[in-house]
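Sanity check

After download, print the first record. It should look like this:
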Amino acid sequence: MKKIEWLIAVFFIGMGLMCMSISALSFQSDSLLQVGGYIKTLLICAILLIAIIFLLVQWIRVRKKR
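Expected structure tokens:
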């Protein structure tokens, strides 16, 4: 598979995991304000993961050009 296909697959897996975790958290007895805190934490983790993957891909591209 090409790199872009891997990135698309990882993107869909991440979306699926986020949807499942949000629905699992919403069925608990917590209030919606606490669920909002969980969602914010999940989004921050997702953004950090995407940034790390982006930096890794850029680093690999720079190494290949040398």
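If your output differs, re-run the checksum step. Summary of this record's structure: Residues 12 and 18 are 10 Å apart (CA to CA).
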